[in-house]
Write a structure and sequence with these properties.
single chain, 268 residues, 43% helix
Amino acid sequence: MQNSKRRFLATSALGALAPLAATSASAQTAKGTKPRTFVLVHGAWHGAWCWARVADHLRQQGHKVYAITLTGLADRSHLMSDAITLDTHITDIVNLFKWEDIDQAVLVAHSYGGWPVSGALEKIHDKVASVIYLDSFVPENGQSGADLVSPGLRKLLDDAMAQGQVSRNPPKAEVFVFDRPEDAAWVTSKMTAQPNRVALQKIVLTGGREKVARKAYIRTTRYKNERFDGYVKNLGQTPGWRVHELDAGHDAMVDKPEEVTRLFLEFS
């Protein structure tokens, strides 16, 4: 009698759970939440910390996230040296893919991150399912960061080089435009110096980026940058690219993490 009762209770419990499991599976299918792997690459003066809010949202939805800090910045600022070049940051990304066995990833670049991401795609394009540039440089072969930055940022670089410095200090985060003053204060407190030589090396590109099947550019509308506006115009007319404008400041991953997460999933 007791055995029969136990079997009845077990069967009843499984029966009660089945609808819940089916509902959960249906919800995942409806939302298209197939697990993906995201590799997030920050911009100048930033680090992996800037992706924390977006990374949390992605992980809560079941995705795997790698937020890398490039050599010499943030939690790796103790490695700052004159030996850091663009190739160093390209290798940071390539090695992450190699040692973590990353494949079919969504590779995301923010701002300066477009340089090492574009360079890394020369070697890892076959491991990248889609690439997303968020208010980012999309360099062409033979260009350098010093060629494309604004006059104000170029002066920061020239002044630092003239003084024999290996890095240049960040501006106040307010220049990136935030909805909330506390976010600007937080970003200012986290930013560290940017190595100078990464902006001096000319990038070598032979078409790796173009081999990625899905490519997208997200442009924030509150941050003024004529170079980025040019990318919107040109890439919007380029086959294989999707372009989207987002009502946010330059650090949209801090400013609008929910919206950025949604766009990353849509464009991946």
